[in-house]
Automatic annotation (TrEMBL):
Transmembrane segments: none annotated. The active site is at 265. This is Aldehyde dehydrogenase. The keyword Oxidoreductase applies. The keyword Oxidoreductase applies. Belongs to the aldehyde dehydrogenase family. Keywords: Oxidoreductase. Pfam families: Aldedh. GO terms for molecular function: aldehyde dehydrogenase [NAD(P)+] activity.
Length: 494
């Protein structure tokens, strides 16, 4: 890993591409409008970014449809498509430090998380998904001797992808890798808070040999480009990661337009259950990482902690010690464990929820309201609030920041009921050394993902996604490919 000064020096040499990427080239928004991309650690301007709207989306969809119809990508020999995607992954690896810096500067994530998690996981996502291209077969249905029914996987056509800012490169990769591998054309709308790595990714796709128009990136501020994409009559599938509020709007837009299929990876308020028979030190370390990693700006952050009453005191002492590992600092320093919040509005959200927790009777045992100094970055403090319960606003609502609510329970049934008492169902963790309890509780948790004696671990082979208001469909694994194909059957009477 490079040193702090080496990362600082390299960050000075970076060039940022802020224009839209349509039909294989950078271009300004049709309106000529831009919006600023700000480094949240310094509040300084990185670059101005094209503010795309419906006109740019129309252009991008037209190009994407045209190239889809031409077959240049959709009908390319699977082995060749695989080779292009593998070359693309190689290019990302070649520029891995640049990608690490782009997201760190653009949204404040620590450089060590970028180097150890986001960039290698993104590369793995492209490589693994590329390998699927010539390994997933169609089927023959058992219809009898006088007919032949062939079931094939067809690309859907034009895919719109809308992504959030918390894992900019990785969330984009989870969407576009399977969509492209399946032979589709893609229009990507990255978050306005972190569009830079997506634009560079598109440039490298062309360098790898992807035909023009197959991958287009239309950055846009607020809902402008995203809404136009979601309402577009010629987009077949919309794949979204972001808040539950916007996810609901996308379902409406789909209904108002062409009934495009909508896949949603939405918000979360994940519970973490610590039973009295847990390894307390490991559980405390896991609980701290589960809320403070990436400044708590993690959809699967376990922001609701439920501790069995009999070990609460001992556990809290261990938790407070583990929390001290997380200190906000310059994200370019490899030793930094927590960067700034993505922007001033996210910092204000964190402050608002800490105040509401206090107003409703919560007891702040670590951290507290942020002490913002103008021009010095949007830094929050890792915060633990005890005396919490499910009736409190900050326990019910997603904060998306480093604020942990600590509640207690007395029985296994109560722990399960408290964990499931949420509109969300994304992730859940539980800590116990009792194997039967681990299975019993995992089965009962209303959650797309459950971690036992760990938190947040995953693999490209493992699906990622939630239930209830956390969404539908899955990113990663072969299940991700299912979102971007149509099943077709051809029946022949012999
Ligand atoms: P957001 O919903 O505000 O924005 C997500 C994307 O939607 C952005 O690109 C944004 O510009 C766009 N958008 C906003 N309004 C739109 C509209 N009306 N029409 C179309 N597009 C619109 O979410 P965010 O603040 O970027 O990200 C944080 C949220 O993402 C959290 O709720 C978090 O839990 C969630 N998230 C979920 C997962 C998951 O896998 N389930 C992963 C990461 C983040």
């Amino acid at each position: 890993m490079k040193s702090y000064s080496e990362w600082q020096a390299q960050s000075e040499t970076l060039t940022f591409h802020g224009q839209a990427y349509i039909n294989g080239q950078f271009q300004p928004a049709v309106s000529g409008e831009t919006f600023p991309s700000i480094n949240p650690a310094t509040e300084k301007l990185l670059t101005n970014v094209a503010s795309c709207d419906a006109a740019d989306v129309d252009l991008a969809v037209d190009c994407a449809r045209e190239v889809f119809k031409s077959g240049a990508w959709s009908e390319m020999h699977p082995r060749q498509r695989k080779q292009i995607m593998q070359k693309w992954a190689d290019l990302i690896e070649l520029h891995k430090d640049e990608f690490a810096l782009l997201d760190t500067l653009d949204m404040g994530k620590s450089i060590s998380e970028m180097v150890n998690i986001d960039v290698p996981d993104a590369i793995d996502c492209f490589r693994w998904t590329a390998e699927c291209i010539d390994k997933v077969y169609g089927e023959i249905a058992p219809t009898g001797e006088d007919t032949l029914a062939m079931i094939s996987h067809e690309p859907v056509g034009v895919v719109g992808a809308i992504t959030p800012w918390n894992y900019p490169l990785l969330m984009v990769s989870w969407k576009i890798a399977p969509a492209l591998a399946a032979g589709n054309s893609v229009i990507l709308k990255p978050s306005e808070k972190s569009p830079l790595s997506a634009l560079r990714l598109a440039e490298l796709a062309s360098e790898a040999g992807m035909p023009d128009g197959v991958l287009n990136v239309v950055p846009g501020f607020g809902h402008t480009a995203g809404k136009a994409l979601a309402l577009h009559m010629d987009v077949n599938v919309l794949a979204f990661t972001g808040s539950t509020r916007v996810a609901g709007m996308l379902m409406e837009y789909a209904g108002q337009s062409n009934m495009k299929r909508v896949w949603l990876e939405a918000g979360g308020k994940s519970p973490n259950l610590v039973f009295a028979d847990a390894d307390i030190k490991k559980a405390a370390a896991g609980a701290a990482s589960a809320i403070f990693a990436n400044q708590g700006e993690v959809c699967i952050a376990c922001s609701r902690l439920y501790v069995e009453k009999s070990i609460k005191e001992e556990f809290m002492a261990a938790l407070v010690e583990e929390a001290s590992r997380f200190q906000a600092g310059d994200p370019l320093d490899p030793k930094t464990t927590m960067g700034p919040m993505v922007d001033g509005s996210q910092l204000a959200t964190v402050e608002r929820y800490i105040r509401s927790a206090q107003d409703e009777g919560g007891h702040v045992v670590v951290g507290g309201v942020p002490e913002y100094k103008e021009g010095k970055g949007y830094f929050a403090k890792p915060t633990i609030v005890d005396n919490a319960h499910n009736g409190m606003t900050f326990v019910k609502e997603e904060i998306f920041g480093p604020v942990l609510a600590v509640c207690e329970f007395e029985t296994e049934e109560e722990a399960i009921a408290l964990a499931n008492d949420s509109i969300y169902g994304l992730g859940a963790a539980l800590w116990t050394q009792n194997l039967s309890r681990a299975h019993r509780v995992s089965r009962k948790l209303e959650s797309g993902m459950v971690w036992v004696n760990t938190w947040g671990e995953g693999d490209t082979t493992v699906p990622f996604g939630g239930v209830k208001a956390s969404g539908n469909g899955r990113d990663k694994s072969l299940h991700a490919l299912e979102k971007y194909i149509d099943i077709k059957n051809v029946l022949i009477r012999l």
